[in-house]
Amino acid sequence: MNKLKELLADLEPAIADIINQPGSPRAVYEPISYILSLGGKRIRPAMVLAAYKLYKEDYTPEVMQVAQAVEMFHNFTLLHDDIMDNSPLRRGQETVHIKWDDATAILSGDLLQIEVYEKLAEVGNVEILKLFNAMGRELCEGQMNDMQFEQMDVVSNADYLDMIRQKTAVLLGFSLQAGALLGGASAQEGKQLYDLGISIGLSFQLMDDYLDSFGDTAKVGKRIGGDILEKKKTYLWNEMWSRLDATAHQEIEAVYTKPEVEIIDFVKTKMDESGAKDYTLELAQKYTSKSLTALNSFDTPSGDKTYLEEIVKMLAGRES
Description:
2 strands, Farnesyl Diphosphate Synthase, 76% helix, 16 helices, two-stranded antiparallel sheet, mainly alpha
């Protein structure tokens, strides 16, 4: 993980700069500093720098500003997502809407998004701004699709994959594309890296689905089986449901009257017996292989692929 650590060290001053939020009234700025200081892997801004490293070694102010904008935008979405999901915790700490209130979280999120556009305005690259807007539109569409899926009895995996492409993968795609363009990539190369980000994002989310049900709590860092208890229409759930008959569907519905441990164990058994467990893991690994193949075949005259290669392998290699 030396290459990723190097990128995170390079990012540290830029992240510290956006955490230290000046401004008044403090009641709207403190929640921004709070959520930005909660940590996280900082993978998205690291991807901006990793794509830039495919072309150039020494950072420009502009690439650091885009990296900051990406991290700020990601945290803006978390502020609002936590309200919509009524989540009490974020990275092991109280969410902003719990620590303060819903109105403060909404307003601080709005202000954080404005600061994202201030960063992008400082960069002054109209093409990157257009790409950012297209990404932001898709991300909102994906969030709405995800919310609507919660009200549906059956969701196709084709629709689910398109939803996670929008909700999760497009920001990774933008991060790679923007970093590469600032490094001197052609429009075609930028699009190739955007597509690479989409593959990485799909693999990442499918592994998240898998680990939520079949991971190790100590390694994954959260309770196992949460998606099952919520009957969340993940790829894993959808695949299981599509492979089972009406009798099995009734058995699954009936088990939800029992204690949580029994529910989780029963549904996990059905996911395993139906083949959905193995199929979901294989698909996640397929997208990872596709990502690595695309990266290996990507031709950069003087750049360093090892930064991005390490990120791809890290995201794919989270332990189960």
